[in-house]
Amino acid sequence: STPSLCTDGHPVAGLPRGRVRLYVVEFPRLYSILSRWLRRRVESHAWGVAVDVEVEEREVIEVQEDPRPQAEGPRPPGAIGTVVEWRPLPSASLRAGIAVMGVALACAVAGLTYAITRPIAIDSYIAAVVGLGSLAVGLFAGLASHGYRSMRYILSPQALTIRWLWIRHVVPLGRVEGIFGGHRLGRRTRVWGFSWPGQYSGWTRAEELGRLSFNGTSLDPSAAMIVATANAGYAITPSDLEHFREQLIERLEAMTAEDVEQAPEPRREAPRWMGLSILVDRLSFGLVFLALLVLLVSFGYVAARFQGLPGLMPLHFNYAGEPDLMGPPSDAFRMPLIGLVILIVNGAVAAAVHGWQRAAGRMLLAATVFVQLVMLIAVLRVVH
Question: Three-state DSSP class for 365?
């Protein structure tokens, strides 16, 4: 009682030409609708077939192949020899990113405008911090929006490519050893790395498969699938999970023994800075945040006392506690600025050495926190 399309056991879209039988049982009114649909379907794919519709007693609609030689048309979407791009499962990631970016940029403009037009004081300093912080949030939201737009799963005859921002995971099909359901991720997927509402890129763990790369738009295990190789695994969330799985299996079954033997190892392609190990080290991030917090306190204390500072103030004291360097109030910002330069330089060096000597990178960041505390003490002594 359900209409079915048959072409030697394959869907219509799977063959460029051939005999198509559409059986309509108990639904004679569907005849005209289905015949028009078939004509549009055939013409849109340029299969080179003539549509000849006739109704028999059992109500069979037949599409007969044109006996005349026809030029071979373009391959239908999803054919094994084509390259197909799949979008991830739709989510609210883009809408959330645009909304947050708009609000953050508005706050940034308002805060920075207020800070520029007002004299140096605690209120203008807070406005500047809010403005710069909002600008950073807006840029991050813009990055998240671009990440959602760029996420793709690309199926080629020889490989599956997972793309997100400037990162590409290339998985040769000859190295694929298994395709598993998302239920192995557990009741609720947990991803370490980049997390934004409706967009996740990083790594996770799966039952019996260990650590996996995760690039998707949903944490619901039923929306995900896992592609496993001998040494790695990849969890993804394509928009049409079943269709994607079918196409992937078809391409795997079409691989020859020679293709499997010559398949290279899976690889990750990304800019060098995106491969820095410090980006996933929470302790290092905590030390950087602490150093930045102390630095902001130094700037804030100078700004809060700035209006009450004399026109010429001592900036340095000798061993006897007597001032030996005088200057205008604006020179009080020199020490926090020196702390800012130290933070940037030490952070860059720590990021460079963290990959091969994690302890050394962390010690350098801890030393940066100590330097910021020393600078804060110096600011308190001079300005107070």
Answer: helix
Length of the chain: 384
Closest CA to 115 of 250, 263, 299, 292: 299
CA distances from 252 to 128, 177, 189, 265 (A): 57, 10, 27, 16
Cβ atoms 278, 352 nearer than 8 A: no
Quote the CA–CA distance of 138 and 170 in Å, as a whole number.
31
Question: CA-to-CA distance for 285 and 351, rounded, in angstroms?
Answer: 11
Per-residue pLDDT band for 63 (boundaries 50, 70, 90) equals very low
Single pTM value for the model: 0.71
Spatial separation of the C-alpha atoms in residues 54 and 31, rounded to whole Å: 10
Residue 26: predicted pLDDT: 37
pLDDT for res 278 = 85
pLDDT in the model for residue 80: 64
Tokens of 301: 């204390």
Given a contact cutoff of 8 angstroms between Cβ atoms, the answer to whether 16 and 47 are in contact is yes
